[in-house]
Fold this protein.
Amino acid sequence: GQQLNQSPQSMFIQEGEDVSMNCTSSSIFNTWLWYKQDPGEGPVLLIALYKAGELTSNGRLTAQFGITRKDSFLNISASIPSDVGIYFCAGQSYNTDKLIFGTGTRLQVFP
Amino acid sequence: KAGVTQTPRYLIKTRGQQVTLSCSPISGHRSVSWYQQTPGQGLQFLFEYFSETQRNKGNFPGRFSGRQFSNSRSEMNVSTLELGDSALYLCASSLVGADGYTFGSGTRLTVV
């Protein structure tokens, strides 16, 4: 099935550090979404982006919709232990509600 | 308000059997989508239902099927189970649009 390329695959960082992850696609999307998944749970929406170039923040999280509409990135500032989890990007095309998910970035935060 | 409820949470089946998973969406949500999550393949789209009609379908074999009832509850069925069907099956509901998706906690299916 179709998937987005997400990097890095995993990150091990110290509490307080900033984190960046990105997502690229060969297709154009009209919506980019970022989710976080905790063990044993379903993904939870963090940020939604609707316009090329859009920069949106949600607390310590900042995400941007790439100008080409083929990429997006997520930054987490001043990481804390509860940021641990798997982060997924997802893209949606104009004519469907189907989401295409990235391969995920597993984040570990050490105190 | 209650979230998306998936039952059962865990399931163990034998190869060749069939299985039915259930999803109750958030009240008022009419769109229900199903995803398969495996360590190797990530989150793969199975199908989406809206008002009892399948609107989108992913690239899965015909052994995977679904339906939606008039109360928006949805079921998915997998027949003739294979070992590779072992996965976390996630259901998501939305009012309109994928950015409104709320996921359930999933059903973890193990095929032995």
Notes: Chain A has no helices and eleven strands.
